[in-house]
Write a structure and sequence with these properties.
Largest sheet: 4 strands, mixed
Order of helices and strands: EHEEEHEHEEE
Strand content: 35-45%
Number of helices: 3
Distance between the termini: 28 Å
Helix content: 25-40%
Length: 136
Amino acid sequence: MDLSIHTTVLPHDDPDAAVAFYRDVLGFEVRKDVGQGAMRWITVGPADQPDVSLLLAPPAVDPGITEAERRTITEMMAKGTYGWILLATKDLDGTFERARAGGADVVQEPTEQPYGVRDCAFRDPAGNQIRIQELR
């Protein structure tokens, strides 16, 4: 098989705040912004990696999701336990400082983990956890 990761999805509950975070704080480019109001599907990604994207999507819009499931998803997003993504950088300290200066919600400062990686963590405006590992 010849597979690659093309797009992954995280929910958003405020499309303008999501764009501001991923574009202005993390430095991703906005590739597509489809829909209107809160019902927007926004594709972002690193400018130097055009084949890798992150789709920011309204949560729980699938017609097969029950009202109870929608409530659970909303509650989990509010707690920051619904979505997360792991990013990587060669400059963890610089990336951490730029994200913190940009107003990102810090969860964990750069830390050497017992399992052999150095990383930090933030929450985006929807509560998704953004973990960033240092490339070595």
